[in-house]
Design brief:
With 134 residues, this protein is an all-alpha fold. It is built from five helices and no strands.
């Protein structure tokens, strides 16, 4: 696995160098900065909701890799890949974002992150106020 990551990093660098030779260093610098900012925005917008949903799934015992990949993990992986400089990682991140946006269309009326009924927990409870002792 480390060898594969090393080869992938070398390919990323070679692609960036070739892009720099073809179009100039400003284009490469702009692409790296733009993808990094986009990755940070995605992580800020979706990061807390993803971590909250993962924590709830762990708490209720419904955490599976398939459910994470289907629901919430794709934007997190895409945001991290966008922060990593390189064209291949950016293209894969854009593929993940496109896949996520096709499976999770934006709802027009609701801005709530807990809109799907699978993660809802319904609990009855009573509030007991203790009388102050005098």
């Amino acid at each position: 696995m480390p060898f594969f990551l090393f080869v992938l990093a070398c390919v990323e660098i070679a692609v960036l160098i070739k892009l720099g030779q073809l179009s100039g260093g400003g284009v490469v610098l702009g692409e790296v900065l733009l993808s990094g900012v986009l990755g940070m925005i995605i992580l800020q917008l979706k990061g807390r909701a993803i971590l909250k949903n993962v924590a709830i799934s762990v708490f209720i015992g419904r955490l599976t890799l398939r459910s994470l990949m289907r629901r919430e993990l794709l934007p997190l992986i895409a945001g991290i890949l966008l922060i990593v400089p390189g064209m291949l990682s950016d293209l894969f991140a854009l593929y993940l974002l496109l896949r996520y946006s096709l499976t999770h269309p934006l709802s027009s009326g609701s801005t709530s992150d807990t809109s799907d009924a699978d993660g809802a927990i319904d609990v009855e409870y009573k509030v007991h106020d203790d009388e102050p002792r005098t």
